[in-house]
Amino acid sequence: MKVYAVSDLHLSGAAPKAMDIFGAHWKNHFDKISEAWRQMVAPEDVVLIAGDISWAMNLHDAAVDLAAIGALPGRKVLIKGNHDYWWSSISRIRGMLSCGMHVLQNDAVDFGCVTIAGTRGWLCPNEVSYSPEDEKIYRRELIRMEMSLAQAEKSGHPIIAMIHYPPFNETRSPSGFTELFQRFGVRQVVYGHLHGPSIKSAFDGELEGVRYALTSCDAVQFKPRLIASFAAEETPVPGAK
Asked: In the prediction, which pLDDT does 145 show?
C-alpha cells in the first residue's frame, strides 16, 4: 500500500472559477491532477488531501467537488482548510461521501498498517502579525490535533499527521504542533496552504526526527506526491517527490 498526498485542490464544480488568475500553470489544474492520479494511484492506496478542497460556500455546492474526488482511484482522507467554508456538520459531510472517503475532525482513521490523524491548524506564534484572536484559534486547533493523535496512538500503528497550515512559523521555531508530533511519535507530516513564491521558502525535510512535506498542488506539480509505502510486513519506506 502506498500513501500519497496532494492538497489545496481549490475545486469549483458548482460555480466554476478560473484558477489561471493565479498563473498560467493553474489552467485546467484538476485535469492535470486527475490524469496523474489515475496513472499513479491504485485502489488499495491512500491519498491525503490537507485542506482547501473546494471554493463552495455550502455543502450542497461542495458535493460536486467531493464526488469528483470520490471518483478517483484509492482511499481518501480529507481535512478542513481555511477556504473550506462549506465544511459544516461532520455527520452531514460523512453521510454524503463516496465509499472509501474519510474526513477527520478530532479523530483518526486506521488503515491497518498506518493511521492518519489531523486538523486544520492555524498561524503559529510569530513576531510579525499575531493577534489575541490568532492565539485563541491556535490553542483550539492544538486541542483538536491532540485529540486526533491520541486516538491514532491507540492503533499501535505508525502515524502520519495532516495539517493545512504550516506547523511552524517563518523561522521554523518549535510550536505546539511540532511538540505534539514529537510526543506522539509521528513519523511524517503533510501540510499545504502555501502557494506561489511562498513555496520556495517553505520547509520540506526532516526536523527533530519528523519529516515534513509540503503538498500544495502547485508545489507538487499538480500530481499526488508519494509519502510512504508499506510492504506486507508493514515496514514503512520513506517516499520522495
From this structure: 98
Q: Which grid cell sits at 200?
A: 520556495
State the Cα–Cα distance between residues 125 and 123, nearest whole angstrom: 7
- In angstroms, the CA 118 to CA 163 distance is 6
Write the CB contacts of 37 (distance below 8 Å, at least 6 apart in sequence): 6, 47, 72, 73, 74, 223, 224
Q: What are the strands of the beta sheet with 108-110, ordered from one edge? A: 108-110, 115-119, 159-163, 188-191, 210-214, 205-207
**Bridge partners for 48 per DSSP:** 5, 77
pTM for the structure as a whole: 0.94
Closest CA to 176 of 150, 211, 141: 141
* CA distances, 28 to each of 43, 52, 241 (Å): 24, 17, 22
Going across the sheet that includes 225-230, the strands are 101-103, 75-79, 46-50, 2-5, 225-230, 236-238
In the chain (241 residues long), the average pLDDT of successive 10-residue segments reads 97 89 92 98 98 97 97 98 95 94 98 97 89 96 98 98 96 94 97 95 94 98 97 48 35
CB 65 within 8 A of CB 13: yes
Q: Among residues 113, 116, 133, 115, which one has the least CA distance to residue 125?
A: 133
Residue count of the chain, please give it: 241
